[in-house]
Design brief:
Blueprint lengths: L1 H23 L1 E5 L13 E6 L9 E6 L2 E9 L4 E5 L2 E4 L2 E2 L34 E5 L6 E3 L2 H14 L13 E3 L6 E3 L9 H4 L7 E11 L9 E2 L1
Antiparallel strand pairs: 1-2, 2-12, 3-4, 3-12, 4-11, 5-6, 5-8, 6-7, 9-10, 12-13
């Protein structure tokens, strides 16, 4: 009888621990876009580690406008991001990105209508973007005409709703939050921080570490490290 009770208690504890781990530490996410090809594909089921500790290059799942997305983190607070002729530079150094989706002869997939980045108020595109300094909490910026346009929508989020943002023109501003710049590996076919700005840490759900399986391609294997 004691043996049966022991097994029941152990089983109950195992179930409870599994629930706790699942609720607080682990999450799953189903990829439903092509924006992360060739790293992730439509139908991939991901294992997400719930964490706010992130590093440049991590693949993250996050909230934006009440939707959930998966992209790659390329810009930490304080980093300078620039894309010049489709080549990514971080802090003025060229990044070697073997994970980007490439077309024939190693060229990036062609897009005939590069998107104008209306979010930033300047004539940037998906192929030529920046330089853009990812805001860091406590960092200061002078809001001249150019910087005011680039950071205006970000300031709208940081300032009080009734605050007249135009009053900040030609003044120094101190950012209240750290921000994180996300981008898709399918660089020319991804809506990301180039379109809707950087994230705060509170937007981040966690880090995508493994592909559990793929609904659309059984040959991709199971529990594959990203």
């Amino acid at each position: 009888m004691k043996t049966i009770i022991t097994y029941v208690v152990v089983f109950a504890l195992a179930i409870a621990m599994a629930i706790v781990v699942r609720y607080y530490y682990l999450e799953t996410y189903l990829v439903q876009s092509i924006s992360m090809n060739k790293t992730l594909f439509d139908g991939d089921k991901l294992l997400i580690i719930r964490t706010k500790y992130v590093r440049s290059g991590d693949v993250l799942v996050f909230f934006h406008n009440q939707e959930t997305y998966v992209k790659r983190l390329i810009g930490l607070p304080g980093d300078t991001i620039q894309i010049n002729q489709r080549i990514l530079y971080v802090n003025h150094k060229k990044k070697i990105e073997r994970y980007i989706n490439a077309g024939p002869n190693g060229n990036l997939a062609k897009r005939t209508d590069p998107t104008i980045m209306s979010y930033y108020g300047v004539n940037w595109t998906v192929e030529n973007f920046g330089p853009y300094v990812v805001p860091r909490k406590g960092s200061k910026i002078m809001l001249d005409n150019k910087n005011f346009n680039i950071y205006k929508k970000l300031l709208d989020k940081e300032l009080e709703p009734n605050f007249n943002i135009e009053d900040m023109m030609n003044q120094e501003y101190v950012f209240k939050n750290d921000y994180y710049f996300m981008i898709g590996d399918n660089r020319l076919f991804s809506e990301d921080s180039r379109m809707y700005g950087p994230l705060t840490k509170s937007d981040i759900i966690g880090r995508a570490d493994y592909i559990l399986f793929s609904k659309n391609n059984i040959w991709r294997g199971s529990f594959k490290k990203i």
